[in-house]
């Protein structure tokens, strides 16, 4: 491994080396798609702020109390001495710094990507969070699980177990999520011609975002779980075909 390999900060879980976070998957897909070598530094949730400060990565938002909020993904690029956090900012940095690699946010698509992120947040992410937070917490190491539970339960105002209880509530949430994916599937054929990716035949940051939230389900609920098996049948198998394309970019570290 080159000493100039990019360092990706990621969040571990109880299974060593198991990659689960949908947000860090966005950057992992980006690095693999661009063919950029990288190593992984595992950071537990309570240590994220200090780890980001150590590499010079800025906070990604401000908390309600006015304090800075540091999140992953973040990378450190020893070739430039830069630390960057937040997947879209990382994608733009990689596009600019490594112009000979495939672009993730092609020229003139910044507005599209900004609009997509808002639409994806409200249509897909909001519902997936309800479903996925509790099973995700159960797979985290103790320091991260405690932090994850405390912060998410404060945000939702209820225990994680109450977000998607087994039975009719969870079944209805999955049905609603399927309906929302069908809405998104329609975006790919707005001109009457179905496309696999948002940009047609090439992937973009929008695609790595969708793939990352899909792979979250597979990694946490299991590749043989009924939920993941069901997703692969949705919309005529579109999402199974979608994820098959990304299999070659699932390398944990390069």
Question: What descriptive keywords fit this protein?
Answer:
single chain; 254 residues; alpha+beta; Glutaredoxin; Glutathione S-transferase Yfyf (Class Pi), Chain A, domain 2; 4-stranded mixed sheet; two-stranded antiparallel sheet; globular
List the helices and strands and how they pair.
Elements (H helix, E strand, L loop, with lengths): L5 E5 L11 H13 L3 E5 L5 H8 L5 E2 L5 E2 L4 E4 L4 E4 L1 H11 L12 H28 L4 H15 L11 H20 L17 H17 L4 H6 L2 H13 L8
Parallel strand pairs: 1-2
Antiparallel strand pairs: 1-5, 3-4, 5-6
Helix pairs in contact: 1-3, 1-7, 4-6, 4-7
What does this protein structure show overall?
The protein folds into two domains: 6-97, Glutaredoxin (3-Layer(aba) Sandwich), CATH 3.40.30.10; 110-249, Glutathione S-transferase Yfyf (Class Pi), Chain A, domain 2. The chain has helices at residues 22-34, 48-55, 87-97, 110-137, 142-156, 168-187, 205-221, 226-231, 234-246; strands spanning 6-10, 38-42, 61-62, 68-69, 74-77, 82-85. The strands form two sheets. The protein has a four-stranded mixed beta sheet with strand order 2-1-5-6, with helices on both faces. It has a two-stranded antiparallel ribbon with strand order 3-4. Strand 3 and strand 4 form a beta hairpin. With 254 residues, it is of the alpha+beta class. The protein has nine helices and six strands. The model has no long low-confidence stretch (mean pLDDT 96). Helix content is 52%, strand content 9%.
